[in-house]
Amino acid sequence: MNESARIYDVIVIGGGPVGENVAERARAAGLSAVIVERELLGGECSFWACDPSKALLRPVVARADASRIPGLDPAVAGPLDVDAVLAHRDKMSSYWKDEDQVDWLDSVSVDLVRGHGRLTGPKQVAVQTPEGDTVALTARHAVAVSTGTRAALPPIPGLDTVRPWTSREATSADKVPGRLAVVGGGVVAVEMATAWQALGSQVTMLVLENSLLERMEPFAGELVADGLREAGVDIRFNTTVSSLTRDNNAHSAHSANSANGESGASGEIRITLSDGGQLTADEILLATGRAPQTRDLGLETVGLTPGDWLTVDDTFQVTAIDGGWLYAVGDVNRRALMTHQGKYQARIAGAAIGARANRQPLDTTPWGTHVATADHTAVPQVVFTTPEVAAVGLTSREAEHSGRPIKTVDYNLAHVAGAHQYGEDYRGHARMLVDTDRNTVVGITFAGPGVGELVHSATIAVAGEVPLDRLWHAVPAFPTLGEIWLRLLETYRG
């Protein structure tokens, strides 16, 4: 085993989009930087989450949109071409190879060390490479942890014997299971139920709560549930799984894979529910939350607890560490578990690291260069189901808990002229939350076909704290879904 030592201004542990952006921003500030990555450079988003999941979902949403347009029904009503969809998914995931990502890293002059990185003390990281070598890294200024999250699996008896799907398997599977059980009711659960049902799987959702998308406005979950049921998904609310077994001696006769028509060879999964009922599936997806990737990171060597989320300030310094050298950016700090928000955090953190290293003053005023105000006020999200859901800022429940003086404005999206361009039987809803003291929008949620393209205008309104009197002069083009802004403002004015 060989050992080597290197010194950089900034060490980034984790080479997903967040880590890449931290390193690139540090380089832009004139600092040397290295990324430590144990899997594929580009991380979860590029290979097992955002890119492959949206590649699976886009044909589903496009078919649903087209099926409502008169004259197109015969061309789009048939089943999806599974082979073509999966092939496109593979291409969008770069066939699980990261050469393009490595080329980009080279272009911004950031070094890469492949292997498992662990803290060994303040500003010290040891990397075990795939070849068995050890690379000892020292940071002059900062170490940034951007290791993201992993699937959090519930303690179900028999779980370790059934080889369940997590989000990784759900986005990279090369066969369509004949029967898929989805445990959970959040974003991963509803998106993957949408995708695999459309690809030919018989999907059953087992949801602990009494609604889908519990963290969003209730109408959003209701519309998504309606869409899933109409597609053929069996949704069972207030349901828990008490045990699992897989019959490894039985071959399933329920493969829906149009590529080769083979039967599944891994055996049926028998699911026992808490009410004594039973369900049989070929695969089971556990979409039951996320946990931080910090179990084997050497946190104990700097006084932190392995496996914990890392609490940070608004410049992403870990608050429990003296000296301000340790940063935690992206999902690992639990502030907003979305790639785009993590990349926003990375831009803030990278700039803050650069300013501190260069002994420049930090701009930490609200909405300043070195503070992540949007994490608290303007986090956008899109759920790519049929119908779509788009939201930013507070929900009505969160607004109520905040104690602000809020007026809720609701409008039926089907009454907007632009909705008619999406075909017949458009169903959708919009809700705007107005802080009546400040006369600004603090939250908005859209649910309906095509609403994903509305989220950025909503984000600008919330993040920019645009007064409603000024929004009145932002004229929406006719006939587009954007006209919902005019209708919401008219309704608010009364």
TrEMBL record:
Positions of the FAD/NAD(P)-binding domain: 8-341
Required co-factors: FAD
GO molecular function: dihydrolipoyl dehydrogenase (NADH) activity; flavin adenine dinucleotide binding
Key words, A-Z: FAD, Flavoprotein, NAD, Nucleotide-binding, Plasmid
UniProt: NAD(+) binding residues: G184, G185, G186, V187, V188, A189, V190, E191, G289
Domain named Pyridine nucleotide-disulphide oxidoreductase dimerisation: residues: 379-485
Binding site residues for FAD: K54, G117, D331
Cofactor note text: Binds 1 FAD per subunit.
Region of interest (Disordered), residue spans: 247-267
Low complexity bias (residue ranges): 250-267
Disulphide-bonded residues: C45-C50
UniProt record, GO biological process: 2-oxoglutarate metabolic process
PANTHER family linked: DIHYDROLIPOYL DEHYDROGENASE, MITOCHONDRIAL, DISULFIDE OXIDOREDUCTASE
Family, as annotated: Belongs to the class-I pyridine nucleotide-disulfide oxidoreductase family.
Protein known as: Pyridine nucleotide-disulfide oxidoreductase
Organism: Streptomyces cadmiisoli
